[in-house]
Amino acid sequence: MTVYEKALEFKHKHPGGITWRLKKHCDVVEKHLNPGEEVLFVFMGQKNNSWYEVFMSCVVVLTNKRLLIGQKRVVWGYFLSSITPDMYNDLLVYQGLLWGRVTIDTVKEKVTISNLAKSGLDDIETNITEFMMQEKKLYGSSNETSKTV
Q: What was the pLDDT predicted at 56?
């Protein structure tokens, strides 16, 4: 299943979020998927902290190796952020009156995705947290074995 198909699946399951140019954002992430990387979960929103700024649309893709955030610019170029499990710290979920917001805390920065459908917040939190905690355990065990050698 492609990134775009997964994004449409989420959009139909949880309507109400604000997203523009979904196909273009998905194409950015598709271009940067590594061999052997499979898409587990996709959601979309605005990559900013404000509910009234609706022109920073992005797609967030959880793969079996990392978290990718893709944004296609209107005229030329794009932005792509990659968050690996070793860089992940915490996740903050906020539910407002109309939309929700998720803040992903990493070692270097905090990434906020706003204007999310409220009904999808539990789904987003569960998928990201479960994956990252499982992967963090693997990172921890590989670090312990390298220290003993």
A: 85
Model pLDDT, residue 144? 54
The answer to whether the CB of 95 falls within 8 A of the CB of 118 is yes
On whether the CB atoms of residues 17 and 44 are closer than 8 A, the answer is yes
Cβ atoms < 10 Å from Cβ of 42? 26
Map residue 102 onto helix, strand or coil: strand
Predicted structure pTM score: 0.87
Which positions of the chain have pLDDT values less than 50? none
Q: Are 57 and 148 in contact (CB under 8 A)?
A: no
Distance from C-alpha of 21 to C-alpha of 17, rounded to nearest angstrom: 13
Structural contact between residues 98 and 149, judged by C-beta atoms closer than 8 angstroms: no
Token digits of residue 50: 């404000």
